Every structure is written in C-alpha cells, then in structure tokens.
Amino acid sequence: VPRGRRSAKIATRKGAQDAAKTKLYTKIGKMVADAVKQGGADPESNVKLAAIMKQAQSANVPKDIIKRNIEKGTSGKANYEQLVYEAYGAGGVGFVIECMTDNPVAAQRDVKQALKKGQGKWAESGSVAFNFAKKGIIRVPMDKVEEDQLFDVALEAGAEDVVEDEDMFKVITEIESFHAVQTALQDAEVPVVGDESGLEMIANTQIEV
Asked: Where, if anywhere, are coiled coils annotated (predicted)?
C-alpha cells in the first residue's frame, strides 16, 4: 500500500475513533450532571452517580470533564432532561428509547423521524416499558477471560447473572451493586470493556424475531 494512502487510512480511522470518544465523553458528562442535579454530588449517597462515575473511570473519561459536569449539576446550570420514549419496531417488537437532552421538543421530533424512517411506530407511555428493567451491564470479551473465573468473581460480588452475547459475556447487576461488581472484576484483573458497560434497559423476556 503506498505510504500516502496508508497515512490517509490511519488518519480516517483515528478521526472516527476520536469522534466516538467525544460522543461518549459528552454522553457521560450529561449523565453525571443530571445525576448530581437529582441526587447530589456525593457518590456514597447517590447510587446513580456512583455507577456513572465507575463507567466513566472504565471508559477513561478525562477527570476535568467529570469535574466540570459535577459543578454544572451542583450549580443548577445543568438543563438536561432524561426523556424516555416507547415504540414498536418490525414484527411488533417493543423497545424503549432513552434521551438526555436540553431541548425536549427537538429530541421528540428527531425520535419520531427516526421511527418513521425505520418503519417503527410510536407507542403510548407505559405500553412497552413494563417489559423492561434498568440494570447494570458489564461487558467482558469471551476470549480474554476464563468463564469459571468470571462467574465466580461476578456472582460472589453480587451480580445477578452472567450471560453470553455474541463475542461478549454480559454481567448483569442491580443498579445499586453495579459499582461493587465492576470494582471486584477489575481487582481480579478481568478485562472489562468500560465504554460498553453501564446502566441499560434490558428486556424481562427475550424472543427471536
């Protein structure tokens, strides 16, 4: 491959990686500000903030971003709202859409446009969400850990379950124990994928479609 073309490919790949990092940092920053606004800046008493801080640490989010957004949440400057929408997709599959935004009108418009484009259907509040529960999800590459070790450490630390998901193990926890379980895994040198771990809505029952 000519040097110029190889350099261009490296630059393109780096640009995409940087864009993904920026998007992740912005998302976590908003989550931090919102959690502080709702429950205070002390992770010891604010379980939601503790879980987000652990996610930020695993994803190597710069400390100045965390500090800045804690200050936003404390000062009342954080105008972000956590919005939850419900919808149906192909085959009548229900799903929950979570948004963090400072412009609820624009967010709802964008979600509706995306649903229309994907042949989805807007659902009434409560018609889908009861099928889901918010949990802590910690992802670990299957080829980087012994299954028995992962199960032993995760369950002893308080995890609910460990399931396979393509090339990853998913460690499932209650929100309150997410921080403790992730810390236990990292202390045991289990390779957690920080930027793919966090709090998620998961279906109570899963079916193939």
From this structure: none
Cα angle at 198 between 197 and 204, to 5 degrees? 100
CA 184 to chain centroid:
19
Strand ranges for 2-156 from DSSP E: 81-88, 94-101, 121-122, 132-141
Domain extent listing, the chain: 3-75, 81-122, 131-203
pLDDT band at 193 (very low <50, low <70, confident <90, very high): confident
Indicate the fold that domain 131-203 takes in CATH.
Answer: Alpha-Beta Plaits (3.30.70)
* 69 Cβ contact list (under 8 Å, min separation 6): 29, 30, 32, 33, 36, 78
Distance between CA atoms of residues 40 and 37, nearest Å:
6
What is the token pair recorded at 26? Answer: 């912005």
- CA separation for the pair 46, 40 (Å, rounded): 6
Q: pTM score, two decimals?
A: 0.66
Coil, helix or strand for 6?
A: helix
> Does 3 score more than 60 pLDDT?
no
Q: Which fold has domain 3-75?
A: Arc Repressor Mutant, subunit A (1.10.10)
C-alpha 108/C-alpha 98 separation (Å) is 11
